[in-house]
Structures are given as C-alpha cells and as structure tokens.
User: Fold this.
Amino acid sequence: MTSDEYNDCGPVSGWDLHCHTVFSDGTKTPAELVDLAKANGLHGIAITDHDTTAGWGDAQKAAESRGFPLLRGSEITAQDHRVSVHMLAYQYDPQDEGIVNLFSSTRAARIERAKHMVSRLSKDFPITWNDVMNQTKKGDETTVGRPHMADALVAAGFYHTRSEAFAGAISSSSKYYIPTPSPSALQVVEVVRQAGGVSVVAHPADYSRNKVLLSDFQIRELAAAGLGGLEVWHRGNGAEDRKRLLGLARELGLLVTGGSDWHGDGKPNKLGENLTADSVVAQIVQRGAIPLVS
Ligand code: AMP
Ligand code: FE
Ligand code: FE
Ligand code: ZN
Assistant:
C-alpha cells in the first residue's frame, strides 16, 4: 500500500512524525519507539521530545542498527499572544547557536515554573521537588513538565493514573497551574529556519489545550515568516477544523503532516494512529540541514 491513499484520519500508511520518549514525558526509550514502529509496519518515525535533542543519539543508534528510517525533531513550547502553541521542528542543526540558546532558556524556565507549581501543590498534596525528579527517567536530561508532577501524585496515591491527575490538580484550569514562560511562535519559526530546519504547528485546533485557537490571520503571519507546515492529522483537531487547515495549507503552500503524539503508557494515543505521507517526509528531508537516518 502506498501512502498516497487517504481516509478521514489522513494517509493510510506512512510515517508517525510526533513521538515522545523518556527524554521528555514519554514512558518508553527511543529504542523501544523504533522497535514498536517497525513491528507496526510504519514507514518511519520522528522523535519529537519537548524542548530538547537529548534523545537524538539513542534514536539514531537504534534506527541505524535496525535499518529503520528516522527523522530527528523536537516539539517546542511557544505562544502567540494569548494562545499556547506547540511547534514541531525537524531536521535542524542541533548545534546551531539560536537553537541551543532557545532550549537552554526554555528548560531553565520550565524548572523554575515546575518548582513553583510543586510548592503550590504541596500545600494540599504533600509532594516534594525530589518526588517529581524521581519520576524523570533520564534525570537532568529529561525535559520536566506537568506529566512528571502527575506521576508523583500517582506515586503518592492521590490519583490512579496520569490522565486522572491531568483532569484534577494538574489541569491548566486548576489553582496550582502556572504556564511555562515561552518564546513567541514567530521567534521559534525564525530560529528553526536559521538552524536549517522545518517548523510545523502541532495540533493547531486542539480545544483541550486552548479555548481560543490560532486564527487564520496568525497562521498566515507564521507562514510569511517561514513556517513549513501544519499538523492536520492529529486526534485533537476536529473534522471542521481539519477542512479549514487543509484549505489554509493549500493557499499558503504549507506541508500537511500527521502524528500520534505518542507518549508510551503516558497517554492513550496509539503509535501510528495518524500518519504523514512519504512524499511530505521527502520534502522535509530535502529542506532540512541534516540527513535522514536509516
Ligand atoms: P507542560 O508542558 O508541563 O504544561 O505539560 C503539558 C504536557 O502534558 C503535554 O506535553 C502533554 O503531552 C501532556 N499532557 C497533557 N494532557 C495530558 C493528559 N491528559 N494525560 C497525560 N499527559 C498529558
Ligand atoms: Fe507531552
Ligand atoms: Fe503538544
Ligand atoms: Zn506532543
């Protein structure tokens, strides 16, 4: 079967371009990701941990040893005015100064923010910063976020699952919540472009993350600054919004991608539930600064 065939969820075969591992808030290693993708018959995968390239080396080793194709990427936390925006970035130079600086400032801000949230939570749920760090599978190399706080609450017996904690104390509408101080989406598009990569707005129509979505105007502005694509095929985007996003992609010459947002056991999303066509991956590789791994 070729990836030129589509159904309502996007291409029926192809690549999963949105996957998290133990280097951020996923529960599986990059090698386990590659093994599962291969076993499931995917054409290839991208590793896209939050605000880091720390898992790239392990992913590359696993992909090379199994002869399985891999794109290297990240999911970068950003904002556009009041809207929280996640930007997927692929095939950029990981040593580029702009990227290195962006990640180190976001990661420092994430730690500060997480410590503040834990201090708020600890008034009602006696957990410590150490309890949260104990949930990170790679210590300092792991990008810390709310999922690790959720896991600490589960370990302490306050919730049964990570998702239950996200519906409770960890929710963005809870009194303990503090947003992650983030660069602007325009800034991320610019930094990724300078580093030779391709940027894609992740789950652009997910109402569970934002009451107000990125507007067509905001997407046009990002496209004018060098945005590469839109992640249309993602479980968070509704049917009407998918149509709107496909129209914008056509109008603006943006790539259309898909991904599962797999987090291992950390979320119900199944690896390969949404895919990206081979022809789109070829465009990303052609535009990117680093080679495809296989
Ligand atoms: P943060 O960036 O620290 O605010 O945490 C947000 C992260 O939590 C995102 O990367 C999501 O993947 C993850 N997340 C959001 N909702 C859930 C949920 N219901 N269950 C598990 N993880 C979630
Ligand atoms: Fe995540
Ligand atoms: Fe995301
Ligand atoms: Zn994600």
